[in-house]
C-alpha cells in the first residue's frame, strides 16, 4: 500500500465522524504546510521502492529481468488507460528489476538500451501528462545519457522545455530530433514544433527590443 492509498483508507474509515486526516510537510522551523500532489507522489515512490527492493532480494538476475519486463507491460496497459500516476510508479518498479550484476559490458549496454531507456522515456511522458515538466526534462536527459541519439527522448525533452518556456533549448532538441526522425510523421511533428518555437523566440526578441527602447527613453529624460 502506498501513501495515497493509506490516506484514502484512513479517511474512508473515518467517514461520517467529521474528522479528516491530512498529511503535512515541514517547511521550516515550526512551520508546516499541507502536502500537495507532488509530495504525495514522492511519498508513494519512496514506499514502493522499499517494498519492491525487499521483494526482489531473493530473485536471481534472470528472474528479476523477467519481472521487470512484466512490469513494463503492466505500465504500458496503465498508460493506455490514461492512469499516468500509477503507470509512473509501475515503470519505476520495472527499472528496479534491472540487475546488471557481473554481466559483460555488452550485456549491460544491451539491457540499458532495450529496457532502461524505453522505460525511462515512458516515465518521462507520464510526468509530462501530469504537468511535471521539469521532472520530464530530467528523465529525458537521463535516457539521453545512455542513448544520445534517441528520437523520443529528444522530442519529449523539447516538449517539456517548451512548456518550461526554455524556448532556445527546446529548439535545439527539436532540431536534433528532426535530424534523427525516421518517418514523415516524426519529421512533420518536429517541423510544427520548430515553427511554433520560432514564433515564440521572435516575440521574445521583440519584447526585449521594446523594453530596451523604453529604458533608453527613461535614461534620456534623466
UniProtKB/TrEMBL annotation:
Query: Which sections of the protein are TPR repeats?
Result: 151-184
**Top-level taxon of the source organism:** Eukaryota
Keyword Coiled coil listed: yes
User: What is any Pfam family matched here?
Assistant: TPR_1
UniProt organism field? Phaeomonas parva
InterPro entries cross-referenced by the UniProt entry: FKBP4/5/8-like (IPR050754), TPR-like_helical_dom_sf (IPR011990), TPR_rpt (IPR019734)
UniProt-recorded name of the protein? Peptidylprolyl isomerase
Keyword terms, alphabetized: Coiled coil, TPR repeat
Q: Indicate whether Translocase appears among the record's keywords.
A: no
Please list the coiled coil stretches.
164-221
Amino acid at each position: 500500500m502506498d501513501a495515497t492509498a493509506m490516506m484514502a483508507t484512513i479517511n474512508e474509515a473515518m467517514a461520517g465522524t467529521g474528522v479528516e486526516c491530512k498529511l503535512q510537510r515541514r517547511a521550516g522551523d515550526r512551520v508546516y504546510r499541507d502536502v500537495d500532489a507532488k509530495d504525495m507522489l514522492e511519498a508513494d515512490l519512496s514506499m514502493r521502492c522499499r517494498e519492491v527492493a525487499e521483494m526482489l532480494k531473493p530473485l536471481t538476475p534472470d528472474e528479476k529481468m523477467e519481472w521487470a519486463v512484466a512490469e513494463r507491460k503492466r505500465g504500458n496497459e496503465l498508460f493506455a488507460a490514461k492512469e499516468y500516476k500509477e503507470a509512473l510508479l509501475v515503470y519505476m518498479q520495472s527499472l528496479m528489476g534491472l540487475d546488471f550484476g557481473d554481466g559483460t559490458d555488452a550485456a549491460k549496454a544491451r539491457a540499458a538500451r532495450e529496457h532502461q531507456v524505453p522505460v525511462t522515456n515512458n516515465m518521462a511522458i507520464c510526468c509530462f501528462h501530469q504537468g511535471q515538466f521539469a521532472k520530464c526534462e530530467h528523465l529525458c536527459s537521463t535516457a539521453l545519457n545512455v542513448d544520445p541519439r534517441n528520437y523520443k527522448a529528444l522530442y519529449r525533452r523539447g516538449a517539456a522545455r517548451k512548456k518550461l518556456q526554455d524556448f532556445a533549448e527546446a529548439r535545439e532538441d527539436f532540431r536534433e530530433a528532426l535530424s534523427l526522425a525516421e518517418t514523415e510523421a516524426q519529421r512533420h511533428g518536429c517541423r510544427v514544433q520548430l515553427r511554433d518555437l520560432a514564433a515564440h523566440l521572435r516575440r521574445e526578441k521583440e519584447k526585449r527590443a521594446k523594453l530596451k527602447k523604453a529604458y533608453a527613453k527613461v535614461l534620456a529624460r534623466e
